[in-house]
Amino acid sequence: MKTMHDDILQVLLTEEELSKRVEEIAADIRRDFAGKNPLFIGVLRGSFIFMADLVRKVDIPCTLDFMATSSYGKSTVSSGTIKVTKDISADIEGRHVIIVEDILDSGNTMAFLIDLLNAKKPASVHTCTLLDKPERRQADVTADYSGFVVPDAFVVGYGLDYADNYRTLPYIGILKPEVYENE
Ligand code: PRP
Q1: pTM beyond cutoff 0.70
Q2: 35 CA distance to ligand 1 centroid (A)?
């Protein structure tokens, strides 16, 4: 029987590498936000696994909320027009907000979210992304906390998808081109 793993060209980041780096980011956030009761806002759906691992490793008093945005649909290129498809429930006025993303690509989503959340008068807005593709950037945005710079390849796993599949792979892999070229 064919498995998800058969569609992976190369493992880019192993479970061990992910775990080690998430621990390092968590230590930085713990140092910077201890005593500040930060509010982590995970951007669904890609960030859900990273968010879950990160907040357990940060291990300080904090609260969590989630948003969802859409810009890609089934396309592999950002449309540049971001829509909020699920908004936060929390009141963020006066809170130290940390936006948690799986990937910073064009940067359009993060730039949009920073402006949107800043308008609600938080104490601060910081950004955290597991993966960063700086060569794809369109918006002028840099993450405050960043896990790995990755090449401009189609990466999936550890929350990241192609057409909503592969999110549950425990590692991050590069998808075989024939998977999306045959669509
Ligand atoms: C991905 C990712 C970010 C965004 C980054 O979300 O999770 O939110 O794209 O791209 P950008 O920097 O070019 O804006 P996607 O729309 O694929 O939804 P998903 O998280 O549900 O997979």
Answers
A1: yes
A2: 31
First to last CA, the chain: 21
Residue 92 CA to residue 123 CA, distance in Å, equals 8
Render pLDDT for 80-109 as a digit per residue (tens, 0 to 9).
689 999 999 989 999 999 999 999 999 999
Active site residue 105: yes
Q: Is the peptide bond before 45 cis (omega within 30 degrees of 0)?
A: yes
Marked catalytic residue, from 59, 105, 161, 164: 105
